[in-house]
Amino acid sequence: MTVPEAAAGPGRLTVRRLVFEDLRTARERDPAARSLLEIALCYPGVHALWAHRIAHRVWNAGSVLKLPARLLAHFSRALTGIEIHPGAVIGRRFFIDHGMGVVIGETAEVGNDVVMFHGSTLGGISMSKGKRHPTVGDRVLIGAGAKILGPVTIGDDVKIGANAVVVKDVAAGKVAVGVAARILPGDHEHDPWADPALFI
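User: That's the sequence. What structure does it adopt?
Assistant: Structure tokens below.
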């Protein structure tokens, strides 16, 4: 899991390179995408990610700027239907497909090459301060409507099925489905971006 790389943020890339990386990621992940221009104009997941990148930098620039960061995140949510707290740490090549109803909490950490579908949540189960949202590894797929709740760790290459509710850690390479989520036995060789709900 390269959350430390994600925590370092995408600041090493120029803004232009980062924008094109986000556009190319959406094109690679979504078979309905026809052009980078279409993605730039019509993909709320990409718009929410761009707004988050700005809000996250503002959030970390000092306590005086926390309110402007929250306002930017609030404005982005109103436009896209996707709520990402500016404190959340998100890695590179992150893709939100469709996006409506996605929620990512303040202390969530998301690795690189992660895909989230609409209605999915990285949420908390506690109102206390401190780490209360999930840590998600690299190359994780989170199916539509899935809820990952609490300070759990989702390992690299995990698949969370549609509408699963995950409240415990999931080891790297596993597939979790159902309410409450259970780990499917065996190896599941298939399209890396196919929803594991196919196995139900």
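The two ends are 27 Å apart (CA to CA).
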